[in-house]
Amino acid sequence: ERLTPLHEALPHWPLAWVDEEGAREVARHLTPRALELGASFCGDLCDVMLEWGLHEEASPLARFVAESQPGDLSAKFHLGVCAKLSGDFELARESFKAVARQHPKDPATLWNLGVTAVALHDWSEARSAWGGLGFGLPEGEGDYASPGELSPVRLRVPERAQAQGEAQGEAQGEAQSEQS
User: Fold this and answer.
1) Are 101 and 129 in contact (CB under 8 A)?
2) What's the distance, CA 32 to chain centroid?
3) d(CA 3, CA 175)
4) Distances from the Cα of 33 to the Cαs of 26, 39, 156, in angstroms?
5) Which residue in 34, 125, 146, 178 is a FRET match for 68, CA 20 to 30 A apart?
6) 8-state DSSP, 61
7) What is the C-alpha separation between 144 and 120, in angstroms, rounded?
8) pLDDT (tens digit, 9 = 90+) per residue, 91-113?
9) Whole-prediction pTM
């Protein structure tokens, strides 16, 4: 007899019965026991929480599964999603790159890799990721908008992540200056 996966059995359960804060409280209550039950259970619960839009509550589960099962690409992808939604774009990029190494044409991975690259102002990586989806982006360095045009993608990023991206850009500029 096949057991029904948790994410199929309870796809929208808490949101139908309680408000969002109530769903968050249920999710926070389930997490400690889920961690005791192991990576498989945590992975299923992480799926459910992401489906409910509870990325903050899903994040510890995603981290646990990714650490417990380092070769699990689904876990890496979930970790990337949680990291992206919380503004940790470096971790998100690392996670999506790990998935892309095994599945270089996966559209969801390439899209998310492009989003994280834009958040970190890594225009070359964004071009590469979105080029893999068939988007024709102009060649060159920097933001790919022509003078006077708006960039085709703009992200609202938390200040922490924006500062992280700016620091990375400054470090790259310093490294290029030292090489010149």
Assistant:
1) no
2) 23
3) 55
4) 12, 11, 35
5) 125
6) H
7) 14
8) 999 999 999 999 999 999 999 99
9) 0.69
